[in-house]
Design goal:
The chain is of the alpha+beta class and about 450 residues long. It folds into three domains: about 180 residues, no CATH class; about 140 residues, Nucleotidyltransferase, domain 5, CATH 3.30.420; about 70 residues, no CATH class. It is built from 14 helices and 15 strands. The strands form three sheets. A nine-stranded mixed beta sheet has the order 7-6-2-8-9-13-12-11-10, sandwiched between helices. A hairpin with a 5-residue loop joins strand 4 and strand 5. Helix 5 crosses helix 12. The radius of gyration is 25 Å and the shape is elongated. InterPro entries: RNaseH-like_sf, Tnp_DDE_dom, Transpos_IS1380. Pfam families: DDE_Tnp_1_4. This is DDE family transposase.
């Protein structure tokens, strides 16, 4: 055992990775654009808008969302000011009041600067197949039960909360758009303008063909029309809501048009595609189907009446049906991205009681999420971290715990300030390389 604990006067910082966060924020025009946007009744005009935003993004990049966590920066204000590139650290009261005042006024600025960060860092967008860049759009309810916050209502998952929608681009899962919604709002409500905005945002990042993937809640001809418009043209796979379609009808279609496989005794799988007239669309839509007919269960029980399972997907792709189905199944990866926002960044229970403020916080979280993702992807470019298992992307929790919450000793020498990393830290080489990658 140790002989005891002593306190020293050394400047030890436990969130030194904010120095990298600050470097990435400096690659945007947030400071210039936010400070031009004057807010009425500003009680602390000496604290600039960009200082509010940079400080709060610094909290989010540590996995902290509560306003009171800003007080931790007062333990060494000089370090945090240098790291984040600000002159003042706001109090928790000023932070809350300024975000309340801004509400939805900064959305367009944040969306544009979010894209600027990804472009400035050369973020690579990995296709899901051939040349198709996935653009996954999905709603993920936030549980805010037991609160009286504005907009909290019963969600489709059976708890009280919000129902925000997210849009991720590339296999890496960069966040290109988000929108806070009331818990009771149907997922298709206001999705058409959100889809248009999202596709245009993604097209600013890449000229490679986009593949929009949507769940069955967004089975609407309006979404297909958006994907067919010249300005927002892209490929799509949309899970179809069968509504009143008869399973027997699809079995008949499958037997006539499908390819048959027998994975085991008593189980027959039909896959294929047909052209379908949908709603008011002038051009027919391709429907990929999979019909599973079971006469014997997996444990050997013989069924008196065959069990039918029918799935449909609306798509613009001309790939074989099984490839389309596999591409849609990969859409489930965005559930992991939702989890990282909810748990790794501690954002499921949003901190404000005001809907507009929480909407702004979610937009700031979009920038923080991408900053963490960029840091994680940069860390993978060389095999110098203690984690040697090959992965496509670094989980945000790993980035926060090993590259943001990394302890250093602040040393001043010859009018210069250095961050000294301990020799026992296994992430020293990775941290140094990532910092230098964004320092120039």
């Amino acid at each position: 055992m140790f002989d005891g604990i002593r306190q020293s006067n050394e400047r030890l910082i436990t969130a030194s990775g904010l120095s990298i966060v600050g470097l990435l924020l400096q690659k945007t025009k947030l400071q210039e654009r936010l400070n031009l946007h004057r807010l009425k009744d500003n009680a602390a005009p000496h604290i600039k808008n960009h200082e509010i935003v940079f400080a709060y993004i610094g909290l989010l990049c540590q996995g902290k969302s509560d306003f009171d966590h800003i007080r931790e920066m007062n333990s060494d204000p000089d370090f945090y000011r240098i790291a984040l590139g600000i002159d003042h650290i706001p109090s928790s009261e000023t932070l809350r009041q300024r975000l309340d005042m801004a509400g939805g006024q900064w959305r367009n600025i944040l969306l544009a600067e979010n894209i600027r960060i990804l472009k400035a860092t050369g973020a690579t967008l990995t296709p899901c197949r051939d040349e198709y860049i996935p653009l996954d759009i999905d709603v993920s309810p936030f549980d805010n039960s037991g609160t009286k916050k504005q907009g909290v209502a019963r969600t489709y998952q059976g708890f009280d909360g919000y129902a925000p929608i997210f849009a991720y681009v590339g296999a890496e899962g960069y966040l290109v758009n988000t929108e806070l919604r009331k818990g009771s709002q149907h997922c298709q409500n206001h999705t058409v303008p959100f889809l248009k905005e999202t596709i245009l945002q993604a097209k600013r990042l890449t000229s490679t063909p986009l593949l929009v993937r949507l769940d069955s809640g967004n089975d609407s001809s309006e979404n297909i029309e958006v994907c067919r418009e010249p300005e927002t043209r892209c490929h799509f796979i949309i899970k179809r809501n069968l509504r009143t379609d008869s399973p027997q009808m699809w079995l008949d279609i499958a037997k006539e048009n499908g390819t048959v496989t027998h994975p085991r005794e008593g189980k027959t799988v039909y896959t294929g595609s047909v052209q379908w007239t949908l709603g008011n669309l002038q051009e027919k839509v391709r429907i990929v189907f999979r019909v599973i007919e079971r006469t014997i269960t997996a444990d050997g029980q013989i069924l008196l009446v065959p069990d039918l399972e029918v799935e449909n997907w609306l798509t613009s792709l001309t790939l074989p049906p099984q490839d389309v189905i596999e591409l849609y199944q990969d859409h489930g990866t965005c559930e992991q991205f939702h989890s990282e926002i909810k748990t790794d960044m501690d954002l499921e229970r949003l901190p404000s009681g005001k809907f507009e403020t929480n909407a702004l916080i979610l937009e700031l979280a979009m920038l923080a999420y991408n900053i963490l993702r960029v840091i994680g992807q940069e860390s993978l470019k060389q095999n110098d971290s203690p984690l040697r298992k090959p992965v496509l992307r670094r989980r945000l929790r790993t980035v926060i715990s090993n590259l943001v919450l990394i302890a250093t000793r602040v040393v001043q020498h010859a009018r210069k300030t250095y961050l000294n990393l301990g020799r026992s830290n296994a992430w020293v080489q990775t941290f140094t390389r990532v910092y230098e990658a964004f320092a120039f």
